[in-house]
Amino acid sequence: MQRIFSGIQPSGIPTLGNYLGAMRNWAALQHDHECIYCVVDLHAITQWQEPADLARQTREMAASLLACGIDPRAHILFNQSAVPAHARLGWIFYCVTRLGWLNRMTQFKDKAGKDRENVSAGLYIYPSLMAADILAYHATRVPVGEDQRQHLELANDIAQKFNHDYGVEFFPHIEPLIMGPAARVMSLRDGTRKMSKSDASDQSRINLNDDADMIAAKIRRAKTDAEPLPGEAEGLEGRPEARNLVGIFAALTDTDHASVLREHGGRGFGAFKESLTALLVEKLAPIASETTRWLNDPGAIEAVLRDGAARAAALCDPIVAEAERLVGFLSVQGVKAGRA
Ligand code: AQP
Predict the structure, then answer these.
(1) How close is the Cα of 6 to the center of ligand 1, in Å?
(2) What is the pLDDT, as a whole number, of residue 332?
(3) Can you tell me the distance from the alpha carbon of 216 to that of 203, in angstroms, rounded to the nearest whole number?
(4) What's the CA gap between 88 and 157, in Å, rounded?
(5) Is 151 near ligand 1, meaning CB less than 6 Å away?
């Protein structure tokens, strides 16, 4: 069975983008893969997180994942900071990664914007930690949204350079799993920008805990153009907002752009948006209520994460210890805090 690893930042309420690009696929892949899913709190602090909020957001993200169908008994769900091997391998990978590679990362350019000198070093280097997250488990399949493709190419460059520099075939090749017609869900306010949980405008996204009225209002206000929907997928060319809404509809009905347009082509956006709202409410309401059920029992969420972290550490500790041995670190057994 192929081993899967993927992570999500507890940097806010997950969006429809996170759900269609990642979370939903994570749940589906559990049937025929060994899955390790991680709430990546180390990544979250690459951008400012209120300390008073981060622990709660971590619990909330875990609750959302459980509500989306992640099975923590058959698979593993944990938070990244609970397994120190990620940071240990991360450091080795920071030293393998070349600055030129990081300079090409488009997500850094998008997130840093014009304020490049003022963002954290963590934001710049985080793709190397992401490589460590995956390769610490020798995972070979990584289900992500389209925005992460470049980071996975970088992870393969890092693995290859490590293997080359140390003369080994230790880290495997990683395959991205980028699935479905909504692998890149765009902002509801601007069809050229990714929908993001940390976007300043709440109107730009559907949050997984939005109620029916909020979903209806956001979809009603979603930016569109003046033309009716085309009859064929080619007609979406140059119409990013229309493409986005059709892609969301297709993903939620497990179809594709062409079949949505066969049914809805020629309609105006008013009618289409009403159908889309009904579909979103039908699909998201059960997730919101299941999330609330988990959040009413924070102890149960923490028990899941504790158990997941212990099982994750059992898998990755020997792999990371071997990487450290290959690098040449002296391993002094049996160290305890305090004077020996
Ligand atoms: N708009 C999106 N469409 C499809 N997939 C998406 N993902 C994120 N946004 C979209 C996928 O969700 C997974 C978890 O992402 P993340 O939270 O770790 O980081 P991110 O990609 O930076 O997501 P956000 O929502 O934009 O977070 P913030 O605002 O905190 O930076 C990944 O698989 C990602 O591809």
Answers:
(1) 11
(2) 82
(3) 11
(4) 19
(5) no
Give the N- to C-terminal CA distance of the chain in Å, as an integer: 43
Pocket test for ligand 1, best of 15, 65, 147 (most atoms within 8 A of CB): 147
Give yes or no: 197 in active site: yes
Q: What is the pLDDT along the chain (340 residues), one digit of tens a residue?
A: 899 999 999 999 999 999 999 999 999 999 999 999 999 999 999 999 999 899 999 999 999 999 999 999 999 999 999 999 999 999 999 999 999 999 999 999 999 988 899 999 999 999 999 999 999 999 999 999 999 999 999 999 999 999 999 999 999 999 999 998 999 999 999 999 999 998 999 999 999 999 999 999 999 999 999 999 999 999 999 999 999 999 999 999 999 999 999 999 999 999 999 999 999 999 999 999 999 999 999 999 999 999 999 999 999 999 999 999 999 999 888 788 888 7
Give ∠ CA 262-268-269 in degrees, rounded to 5: 100
Cβ-in-10-Å burial (0-12, 13-18, 19+) of 5 comes to buried
Rounded Cα distance, 313 and 334, in Å: 17
3 state DSSP class of 210: coil
Kindly state if the Cβ of 80 falls inside 6 Å of ligand 1.
Answer: no
**Which ligand 1 atom lies nearest to the CA of residue 111?**
31
The angle at the Cα of 125, spanning 122 to 129, to the nearest 5 degrees, equals 95
Burial class (CB in 10 A: 0-12, 13-18, 19+), 67: buried
Comparing CA positions, the residue from 48, 145, 155 lying closest to residue 105 is 155
Which whole-number Å values give the CA distances from 83 to 16, 24, 77, 145, 307, in the listed order? Answer: 28, 25, 12, 24, 11
Name the DSSP class of 236: G
Angle at 208 between CA 205 and CA 214, to 5 degrees: 60
Q: Given the CA of residue 148, which atom of ligand 1 is nearest to it? A: 35
